[in-house]
Task: inverse folding
C-alpha cells in the first residue's frame, strides 16, 4: 500500500486582493520504504508541497492520504497528533534547543505523545536512538559542544524517537561541509535500507538527490517528472 | 495529570536554561510580595498596638450614672437621681465578672496648701479606680488603701497638675492640703496622663477615698451643688467637723425641734458614678447587659418601669480609632498591590520577549507534535512558576524584613498566616493573568512561519 497519496492538490495564497496559485494540481504517490528526493528551484512550490506533505499546512483543495488516513481535512490539533506519530522532521538549520542536552533534545517529542511514557522509558528510548546515530558518548552535550554533523545526527535521532514511518529532511546537508554531508546522507540510506523508514529528501542539490532511489522534480507548481504513471493520470 | 506533570517539567527545564533572566524577572514579584507581607505585618502590629493603647485609655470602661430625677414632671437631667449607691458597686464586683469596678463621688472645689490654692476636681473613689483608669504605679508615694476607704481617712493622691500648682518646689508626699477646711495628707502623686481626647487635662484632680469626700467634704453630689458658691468657704473653719460644710439642698434644714427629735443626720450614701472596667473590649456589650439587669433587680424596677440609671460605654471611640488604623493598613495594602501589578507587567514584558526569542523553538515543538494548547500551557506554567518562586522568596523577604523592623526599630508586628497564604495565591494569580497573553501569543504562532523565523 502507498504511504503517501496526493490527489489533485491545489494551494492558493491570498496576497491582498490577489490569489496567488502556488500548487496547481499535484498528484503523486510514495510507497512504503522508498527514499525519494523532492527537487525544485526556489519559487517552484517545493516548500509549499513539503509543508503540505509534512502536515504543517492544509491544501486549498485536493486529497492527501497518509498511511491510509485522509489528513487534508484534519484540524490543526489533529494534524499535530499526526506529525507526532507518523512524521519525523530534519531541518537545514538543525533547530536544536539552545542550552539543552542531546538526550533532552531527543526526548522532547515524547512529551507530546498521547500514550503515557514514563520518564525512565523516555530516557531509555532517547539514549537508544542516540546510540543508533552513533552519539552514545555525547548524550550530556549541549548543541554548542557538538559539531555540525553531530548536531544534525541529534536532530535525526529526535525525528526518529517516536518511530514514525515517514522522515522528512528539508535540505539536511545545507549547513554541512561535503564530508559530513556524505556522512549524514549515508545515514539516511542506512536507515532506509535497514529500518525500512520512508524518507523524503527535499533539496535543490542534484548531488544530494543522487543518493535517493527516485527523484521527483517540481516546476511552477506542477510535477515535472519522477512520478508513477497511474498517479499522474488518476 | 501525567501530561501536566510533564509540561511542568518542560517549563522548569525551559526556565533553568536562563536562570539569570528568571531571577531578574521574578525580582518584581519578590519585592511586591515582600512589600505586601511586611506592610500587613507592620500594619496589623500597629493596629493591635493602637487598640491596646485605646483600651488603656479606657475603651473597655463602662460608665454607670444615676438617671434623672423627676419632680412634678420636670426632669432635672441625667445624674440627678440619688439612687446609685456604693452597695451597687459592691454588687457589681460580687456578681459580675469584671476587671475592676469603682464608685465615684465628685466635687469641684478649692484646694489649699499654704499660701497656694487652686480649684480642681476632687474625686472620691476606691483604690480600684486606679485599675479602671489604668493608672497604677504612682510616680511618688503610694495609693491609699481599702482600709482608708472604710475608715474615711483623710488621705489623698494628687494629679500632676495639682501637685505642680500647690507644691512647685517640694515633694508633696507627707504634706497636708486642705479641701474645704478638711485637712488631707498627701500619700501619692499620680503618673502624668496629659489631656484626654477632647482636650481636658486629666492630671488636674485630687483623688481621695470616696467615703472621706462624701461624708467629710461634700455631703452631696457635684451635679446638685452650686460649685461657684461652694468654692469660697464662708463658714468658720472647724477643722474637726465630722460632717461636711456643703448642703444637700434637697431637703430643708431641720428645725431645732426636729434635730432634737432625731439626733442622727441623714447620711446619703448615693454616689455620682460607677466606673466599671470590662475584662476586654469585646466583652463590653455583654457586661453592659449584665450590669443593667443586676441594677434593675437591685433597684426593684419593673419591666415596664423606667430605669433610674444609665449605662454608657466607649464603643464609639473604640470603633472610630480602630477604623482609622484599618484605613491606614488598607491604604498601605493598596500601594503594595500596585507594586504587584507593576511586577506583573514586568513578567508579561519578559515573557513576551522570551516568546519572540524562542519562536523557532515553538515552531519546532509544533512540528514534532505539540498542539497549541500544549504551547499555551508550557508558557503559562513558566510564568506561574516564576511568580510562585518569586512569591516564595517574597514571603521569606517580607517575614525577614518585618522581623528586622521588630528587632531594630522595635515596632510591633503581627505574624499573620492568612496574609502569607493570600500573598502566595495572589502571586500565582499574577502569573496566570500576566502570563496568559504571551502564552496565548505563542500558541497562535504558525509552525511554518515560526520554523523559518530568524
Result:
Amino acid at each position: 500500500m502507498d504511504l503517501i497519496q496526493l490527489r489533485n492538490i491545489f494551494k492558493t495564497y491570498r496576497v491582498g486582493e490577489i490569489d496567488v496559485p502556488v500548487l496547481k494540481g499535484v498528484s503523486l504517490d510514495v510507497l512504503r520504504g522508498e527514499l525519494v528526493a523532492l527537487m525544485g528551484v526556489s519559487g517552484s512550490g517545493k516548500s509549499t508541497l513539503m509543508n503540505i506533505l509534512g502536515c504543517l499546512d492544509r491544501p486549498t483543495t485536493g486529497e492527501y492520504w497518509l498511511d491510509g488516513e485522509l489528513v487534508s481535512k484534519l484540524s490543526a490539533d489533529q494534524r499535530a497528533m499526526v506529525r507526532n506519530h507518523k512524521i519525523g522532521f530534519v531541518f537545514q538549520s538543525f533547530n536544536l534547543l539552545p542550552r539543552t542536552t542531546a538526550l533532552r533534545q531527543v526526548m522532547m517529542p515524547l512529551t507530546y505523545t498521547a500514550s503515557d511514557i514514563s520518564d525512565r522509558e523516555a530516557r531509555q528510548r532517547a539514549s537508544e536512538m542516540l546510540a543508533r546515530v552513533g552519539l552514545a558518548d555525547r548524550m550530556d552535550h549541549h548543541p554548542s559542544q557538538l559539531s555540525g554533523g553531530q548536531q544534525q545526527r541529534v536532530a535525526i535521532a529526535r525525528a526518529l524517537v517516536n518511530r514514525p514511518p515517514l522522515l522528512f529532511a528539508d535540505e539536511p546537508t545545507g549547513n554541512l561541509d561535503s564530508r559530513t554531508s556524505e556522512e549524514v546522507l549515508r545515514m539516511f540510506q542506512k536507515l532506509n535500507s535497514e529500518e525500512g523508514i520512508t524518507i523524503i529528501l527535499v533539496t535543490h542539490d542534484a548531488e544530494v538527490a543522487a543518493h535517493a532511489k527516485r527523484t521527483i522534480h517540481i516546476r511552477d507548481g506542477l510535477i515535472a517528472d519522477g512520478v508513477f504513471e497511474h498517479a499522474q493520470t488518476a | 495529570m501525567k501530561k501536566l506533570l510533564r509540561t511542568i517539567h518542560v517549563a522548569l527545564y525551559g526556565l533553568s536554561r536562563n536562570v539569570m533572566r528568571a531571577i531578574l524577572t521574578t525580582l518584581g514579584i519578590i519585592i511586591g510580595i515582600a512589600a505586601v507581607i511586611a506592610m500587613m505585618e507592620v500594619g496589623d502590629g500597629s493596629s493591635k498596638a493602637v487598640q491596646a493603647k485605646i483600651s488603656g485609655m479606657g475603651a473597655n470602661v463602662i460608665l454607670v450614672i444615676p438617671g434623672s430625677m423627676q419632680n412634678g414632671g420636670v426632669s432635672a437631667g441625667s445624674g440627678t437621681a440619688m439612687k446609685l449607691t456604693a452597695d451597687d458597686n459592691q454588687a457589681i464586683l460580687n456578681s459580675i465578672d469584671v476587671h475592676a469596678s469603682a464608685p465615684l463621688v465628685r466635687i469641684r472645689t478649692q484646694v489649699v496648701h499654704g499660701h497656694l490654692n487652686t480649684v480642681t476636681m476632687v474625686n472620691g473613689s476606691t483604690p480600684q479606680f486606679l485599675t479602671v483608669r489604668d493608672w497604677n504605679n504612682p510616680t511618688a508615694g503610694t495609693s491609699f488603701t481599702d482600709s482608708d476607704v472604710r475608715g474615711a481617712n483623710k488621705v489623698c493622691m494628687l494629679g500632676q497638675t495639682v501637685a505642680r500648682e500647690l507644691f512647685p518646689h517640694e515633694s508633696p508626699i507627707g504634706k497636708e492640703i486642705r479641701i474645704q477646711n478638711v485637712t488631707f495628707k498627701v500619700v501619692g502623686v499620680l503618673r502624668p496622663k496629659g489631656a484626654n481626647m477632647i482636650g481636658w487635662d486629666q492630671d488636674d484632680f485630687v483623688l481621695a477615698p470616696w467615703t472621706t469626700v462624701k461624708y467629710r467634704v461634700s455631703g452631696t453630689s457635684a451635679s446638685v451643688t452650686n460649685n461657684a458658691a461652694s468654692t469660697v468657704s464662708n463658714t468658720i473653719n472647724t477643722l474637726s467637723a465630722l460632717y461636711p460644710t456643703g448642703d444637700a439642698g434637697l431637703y430643708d434644714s431641720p428645725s431645732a425641734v426636729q434635730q432634737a427629735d432625731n439626733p442622727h443626720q441623714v447620711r446619703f450614701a448615693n454616689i455620682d458614678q460607677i466606673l466599671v472596667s470590662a475584662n476586654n473590649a469585646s466583652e463590653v456589650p455583654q457586661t453592659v447587659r449584665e450590669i443593667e439587669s443586676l441594677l434593675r433587680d437591685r433597684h426593684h424596677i419593673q419591666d415596664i418601669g423606667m430605669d433610674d440609671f444609665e449605662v454608657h460605654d466607649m464603643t464609639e471611640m473604640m470603633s472610630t480609632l480602630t477604623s482609622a488604623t484599618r484605613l491606614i493598613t488598607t491604604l498601605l495594602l493598596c500601594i503594595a498591590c500596585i507594586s504587584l501589578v507593576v511586577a506583573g507587567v514586568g513578567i508579561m514584558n519578559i515573557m513576551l520577549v522570551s516568546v519572540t526569542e524562542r519562536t523557532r523553538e515553538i515552531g519546532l515543538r509544533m512540528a514534532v507534535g505539540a498542539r497549541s494548547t500544549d504551547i499555551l500551557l508550557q508558557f503559562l506554567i513558566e510564568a506561574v512558576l516564576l511568580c510562585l518562586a518569586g512569591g516564595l522568596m517574597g514571603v521569606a523577604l517580607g517575614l525577614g524584613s518585618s522581623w528586622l523592623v521588630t528587632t531594630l526599630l522595635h515596632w510591633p508586628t503581627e505574624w499573620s498566616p492568612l496574609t502569607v497564604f493570600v500573598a502566595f495565591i495572589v502571586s500565582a494569580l499574577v502569573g496566570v493573568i500576566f502570563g496568559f497573553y504571551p502564552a496565548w501569543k505563542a500558541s497562535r504562532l504558525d509552525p511554518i512561519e515560526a520554523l523559518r523565523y530568524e
